[in-house]
Batch of 2 targets.
Target 1
Amino acid sequence: MRIGIFDSGVGGLTVLAAIRARLPGADLLYLGDTARVPYGGRGAKTVKQYALECAQWLVDQGCDHLVIACNTASAYGAEAVRTACSPLPVTGVVLAGAASAAAAAHSKGPILVLATRGTVSSQAYLRALNETLPGRQIRQRACPLFVPLVEEGWPPGVVLDGVIDHYLSDLLQPTPAALILGCTHYPVLKDHLAARLPEGLAIIDSSEAVAQSLYRMYPDARSGAGRTRLCFTDDPEASRAAIQTIYPAGLHGADQIQLA
Amino acid sequence: MRIGIFDSGVGGLTVLAAIRARLPGADLLYLGDTARVPYGGRGAKTVKQYALECAQWLVDQGCDHLVIACNTASAYGAEAVRTACSPLPVTGVVLAGAASAAAAAHSKGPILVLATRGTVSSQAYLRALNETLPGRQIRQRACPLFVPLVEEGWPPGVVLDGVIDHYLSDLLQPTPAALILGCTHYPVLKDHLAARLPEGLAIIDSSEAVAQSLYRMYPDARSGAGRTRLCFTDDPEASRAAIQTIYPAGLHGADQIQLA
């Protein structure tokens, strides 16, 4: 069993790590489109085309299941990828995250979604949550500074607190029921975010949600010693610092590949 | 006379605006590679290839002079573009900025260069300054948070001050002679930077340096009513907010094009 995971860059390594922890027996092939990262600010058609190219490459490598680790690619491209790669199963972070939020939202408060500009504009979380939690108030916020803060490994302090407060302060009344981290980089900030948010607020990490869903689907892969291979469309050296911050094991044996 | 200006995205619009102010009679064609922006964190070979593709497109549109407005593209791709497009004149922001810094550095202090990770790694400013100011100490610093701060139009406050201090505080002793803004977005922060820096420090805006150089070359274009056309590789709507912040006039009639 070989699971193909693709992302716009290195952020999806959080999804890879979560799947690896749950399914040690699966072969995992990761594709990061670092030559064109980030997808978050691009137009819908462009993101959909990039997602299809990444998916096709993973299919050509013999993957049995595709995971769209990038929220923006999942928002704009999941349907197109599902159609193009049918009957292969395709798991996107958006639906997995929305399902987790619905399960974790114990109060009647709004659901907050923090994401890139692209994911917010796509309204994909809005549509998914309207199905899992009909009638619930959803409040979205684009947080473009979070990604460079994570990739640079910024220390706690006035800048990090100031950026978090800038994005979140007007979203905390009425008290929200859950907050979805709608970008693969954001889980790295989870503890800092939790410290600035009301106690008891459920924080949804979509990478965990995806891993749980795969865990249920593939009981045979819950043990064993599967292989992990990382591929990037740009020279992995150019992303060395960011890979080191997010997934330290990933630097060894990473390859550069070219999409058709 | 048609000048072709290319950049990784919208930041080069500061260069377009500076040229337009000096040469009202020139036709200006701007190409922003917004489908693949930013170049700043990518590998050398990838940036060089992207720069060649952008340059070729402008040549195909009949441009008589090419301006590489992106510092990273200028750092990694200027030589390749000059060779490929010979005998067309090619002006890159790096050499223009280094020449301006040499002219403005009245003290013996070090020259500071603020830029993207890619431009810093390329050492292009280091090489250029070693020629214009032999033996002078050069200190470079990558400032990845500056671009999203500019594109989001962040207000003055603790975050902006904290980010500037984080990047600059250990570069101010001994007192520098000049500071080069080695990324097209950074001039938008010029006043904030000046307020946190020693008085009298020369701040070099490479877009101004390029415009001055072209002004000297094309006296016939110093008056007249040239046309301006903007093209982007992604949907211009996806960059609407950033274009609005940097070059408000640019939104009208911007086209999406496809590179070969």
Target 2
Amino acid sequence: MSILAVGTVAFDSIETPFESAERVLGGSASYLTLAARYFCDDVRLVGVVGGDFPEEYLRVLRDGGIDLQGLEIDADGETFAWSGRYHYDMNERDTLDTQLNVLQSFEPTIPAAYHDSRIVCLGNLDPKIQRDVLAQIDNPAYVICDTMNFWIENTYDSLCETLPLVDCLVVNDAEARELADEPNLVKAADRIRGMGPETLIIKKGEHGALLFSGDTIFSAPAYPLEDIQDPTGAGDTFAGGLAGHLVRANRFDDATLRRAIIYGSTMASFVVERFGPERLLNLTPARIAERAHAFRDLAAIPELSAFQPA
Amino acid sequence: MSILAVGTVAFDSIETPFESAERVLGGSASYLTLAARYFCDDVRLVGVVGGDFPEEYLRVLRDGGIDLQGLEIDADGETFAWSGRYHYDMNERDTLDTQLNVLQSFEPTIPAAYHDSRIVCLGNLDPKIQRDVLAQIDNPAYVICDTMNFWIENTYDSLCETLPLVDCLVVNDAEARELADEPNLVKAADRIRGMGPETLIIKKGEHGALLFSGDTIFSAPAYPLEDIQDPTGAGDTFAGGLAGHLVRANRFDDATLRRAIIYGSTMASFVVERFGPERLLNLTPARIAERAHAFRDLAAIPELSAFQPA
């Protein structure tokens, strides 16, 4: 069973009120695969970096067990670079700079060995590129897709062509509202699912996540953390845990999706505890299991007796 | 078993994107008691209105079974009046005007028949008045308290004298952060509980609520509604369902508090479906039970198997 992640591998320059660092290993595909590999031993990465990408970062990914056959190295180009600054309460950030560099001309070619990928995670890329990727995969069991305001605003029609090819769209609440042009999340979810994806997951950061699947809604809490060092990559790490559990379970029913969201939330709760992807480098199955179980206590509503009116 | 609610009874003038109305029955004690009376047949109200308060509104409360012996009518004064406007997404509002009127000189006298009240709900009033109220109650089993930014900013020391007398403080997330002077809610909760209240409930509006009691945290979801007509009174209605379940259960342990939050959330989810307190006037035990049970489905995390590492 395999996961294919297509997305960015980047240099992140991050400022938080507590720490700052330049050119940290980042990008959606890095976080996603570093989380997913705890669940699945066949995690494949498709992306591009420049000649400036250090061997040390390649080693981090490779030592994590990630298959880098699909990582193109454009020796003449420079790696995609993002920089951002978090506010004091960590729930908001300003993007200071984005240098697309090698990403500007990225047209992913999927290695033949990846054509049989079971779960495909389409990172936040041009919807046209997302379709081109899917056209190269034989018969994926499940397609998970991310997008963002830039694509909603600038490539709406193209995004509408991609959505019918997607099983599960994962966006944040602002993106869901913008995509549906509707402030109410329940109505927005209806509208978005009408555009193609059978399942919709809305991430709400420190407020958890909502799952719309079949005719039910699941509200997952966020893990209450005392110490958030750096929220960078939390959304992609969430997607990694999500895809990881799904490929391991090899089922996509409501109960499995609920568990997958808990594992996604678990992985996200770990990654924000340290700067950059550091926390993803030294987790253990026991720690992951322990925190996932803590979510059940956190959300547990005791049995309600029959209602006795006054 | 009895609930005593001390708070405002008001005229609310409300503008939403869909509807507006002037001088609707409002105030924290109105919403709280109209919710609590579904759980308890001895709900007592202490507050003040002016000579302009219509008999019709008194009848609404009285027909709801609420004991109005403690509602002072200041024939020469005018009723407290609030007006506000909701934004399109209903999560934000602007207060347009506040006329304290009779509230300005309000010094609640608790009728002798109320001295044995079991649960006391201290509405969002001057902390000094909150203490004066408690001094008049013989031996309450449980004290629930609300406050707001105005009292935190202007009467901080007085609030610090009230908090040790409180069993359960119920505030929203912005108030919790301001009271603790700490953006992280877990740390803020620790600090606030150090100021007195054994239990803290943080309301997060459309994102649910957090309960900090004993050494556990409970994250309750909000009920996902397609149609929110008017959020006015949701927080006080929440407190009414909360107090209602607690007095009915006559226990204050973690499991009971969790259930109480679900009943509070249930009542709040109803009240926002109609303008003003209208929805609270015609509920049935069956409808309340049905929605409370729906919360369990909404939040249910299926059993997690032992973690199988990759």
